[in-house]
Amino acid sequence: MAFMFLRETIRTYRERDPAARSWLEVLLCYPGVHAAMWHRLSHWLWGHKFYLAGRFSSHIARWLTGIEIHPAARLGRRLVIDHGMGVVIGETAELGDDCYLYHQVTLGVARTMGGKRHPTIGNNVIIGAGAKVLGPITVGDNARIGSNAVVVDPVPADTTVVGIPARPVDRKLPRKAPHFDPYGMPCDDSLDPLLRDLEGMRHELSELEARVARLAMLNQAQQHQAQQRQAAGE
Question: Which domain holds residue 219?
Answer without folding.
Answer: 191-234
